[in-house]
């Protein structure tokens, strides 16, 4: 459809979109991440992870004006709520109990990736709002039950508010490279010195257990991650999923595409004992450190690392914490990264100095009575989340100014 010279198109595959145009829009977003790059979304599709056969039906929406892409977003029709990390199972059950159809629903999100960032890619605020209005109108035309935008940016949430979507707050845990008194941490010991004695002692004990077990780490970045390293990582990743009774969401072909199309976005830690690799942790990075050599175009600001995937072939006490938190944090400090995002949920991450942050989603429900009920629920839930965040802030692992003054 066309309105004021703007043409709305719906594409049933991300491969139908021009990668350069999509990425050019992404480059202009205030909160961009590597996971919204066309290469990442295409890999999720071509590897078979988010396709109709798995209950993910792509319907990417674009706005064009005078032949140029001015806004775009990933949109999926979902037959379930798996792989989302913002839970609406209770809403689906309520619909079912009242004889109403909840699925398929519409979802604006990066599949299997609970990383906050821009979802509504647009050249400006007006285009962003127009895109969201077009998506809502399309959902109404398709008689869908609902629309959900997950882990959106501040600009996304502002557009959602203007269009009338309900907003929901959840909690994640992120680390900031922010030393007491200003500036960044000089090294890992400097970071540990900012923690309370009990937290500092616990981290040192956990790292000592790993070292005493004879485990050492090496890391590889970008094109320096060998094919053998990728193969070993996937063995670990798949093993961990299977041990929990589920096949992994992402297949080996997905990671092959990452190695080929987005190598500079990945940092791999491998734990070795007596020369044998036993575990690995894969981290995404939004920038490619100049000290590593090479060059790429993934330099989103500020430089951020994202904890993503882990797996082990052998069990070693505290190895998970070292591979997934301490080694990446030390690396971030050494390379001047501003933040490390630890992924969905996980209050235990506070003991590793990842602090609580609010993350946001937005929701539209077609049924007026259910929309009213959900809105009242979200008001109560939001008050509870606010109280939870305040309570967590009071349990900071960092030393207070008084403690630092008494024992600098």
Considering the chains and any ligands shown, give keywords for the structure.
408 residues; alpha+beta; Aminopeptidase; eleven-stranded mixed sheet; 12 helices; 16 strands; globular
Task: Tell me what you see in this structure.
This protein has 12 helices and 16 strands. The chain has helices at residues 19-26, 38-46, 89-97, 125-141, 154-163, 188-193, 197-212, 227-243, 252-261, 319-334, 368-393, 401-406, and strands spanning 2-3, 6-11, 56-58, 60-65, 68-73, 76-78, 105-108, 121-122, 146-149, 166-176, 215-221, 266-273, 276-285, 304-312, 339-344, 355-365. The protein is of the alpha+beta class. It has 2 domains: 2-171 and 358-393, 3-Layer(aba) Sandwich (Aminopeptidase); 178-337, Aminopeptidase. A hairpin with a 2-residue loop joins strand 1 (2-3) and strand 2 (6-11). It has an 11-stranded mixed β-sheet with strand order 3-6-7-9-16-10-15-14-13-12-11. Strands 1-2-4-5-8 form a 5-stranded antiparallel β-sheet, with helices on both faces. The longest helix has 26 residues, at 368-393. Helix 4 packs across helix 5, helix 7 (197-212) crosses helix 10 (319-334) and helix 8 runs antiparallel to helix 9 (252-261).
């Amino acid at each position: 459809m066309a309105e004021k010279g703007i043409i709305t198109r719906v594409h049933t595959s991300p491969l139908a979109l021009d990668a350069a145009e999509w990425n050019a829009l992404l480059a202009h977003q205030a909160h961009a991440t590597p996971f919204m790059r066309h290469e990442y979304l295409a890999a999720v599709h071509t590897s078979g992870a988010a396709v109709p056969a798995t209950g993910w039906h792509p319907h990417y929406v674009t706005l064009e004006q005078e032949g140029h892409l001015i806004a775009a977003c990933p949109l999926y029709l979902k037959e379930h709520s798996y792989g989302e990390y913002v839970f609406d199972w209770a809403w689906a059950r309520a619909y079912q109990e009242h004889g109403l159809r909840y699925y398929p629903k519409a979802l604006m999100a990066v599949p299997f990736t609970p990383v906050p960032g821009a979802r509504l890619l647009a050249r400006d605020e007006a285009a962003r709002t127009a895109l969201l209005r077009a998506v809502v109108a399309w959902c109404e035309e398709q008689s869908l039950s609902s629309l959900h935008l997950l882990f959106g940016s501040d600009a996304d949430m502002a557009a959602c508010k203007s269009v009338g979507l309900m907003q929901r707050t959840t909690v994640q845990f992120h680390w900031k490279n922010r030393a007491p008194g200003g500036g960044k941490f000089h090294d890992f010991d400097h970071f540990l010195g900012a923690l309370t004695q009990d937290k500092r002692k616990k981290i040192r004990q956990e790292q000592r257990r790993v070292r005493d077990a004879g485990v050492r780490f090496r890391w590889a970045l970008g094109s320096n991650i060998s094919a053998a390293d990728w193969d070993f990582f996937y063995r670990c990743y798949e093993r961990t999923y299977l041990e929990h009774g589920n096949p992994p969401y992402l297949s080996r072909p997905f990671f092959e595409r990452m190695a080929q199309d987005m190598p500079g976005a990945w940092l791999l830690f491998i734990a070795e004992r007596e020369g044998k690799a036993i575990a690995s942790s894969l981290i995404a990075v939004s920038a490619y450190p100049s000290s590593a050599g090479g060059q790429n175009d993934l330099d989103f600001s500020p430089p951020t690392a994202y904890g993503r995937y882990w797996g082990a072939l052998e069990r070693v006490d505290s190895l998970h914490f070292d591979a997934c938190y301490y080694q990446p944090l030390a690396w971030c400090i050494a390379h001047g990264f501003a933040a490390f995002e630890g992924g969905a949920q996980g209050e235990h991450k506070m003991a590793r100095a990842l602090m609580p942050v609010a993350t946001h989603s937005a929701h539209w429900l077609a049924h007026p009575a259910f929309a009213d009920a959900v809105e009242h629920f979200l008001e109560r839930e939001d008050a509870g989340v606010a109280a939870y965040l305040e309570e967590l802030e009071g349990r900071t692992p960092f030393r207070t100014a008084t403690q630092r003054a008494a024992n600098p």
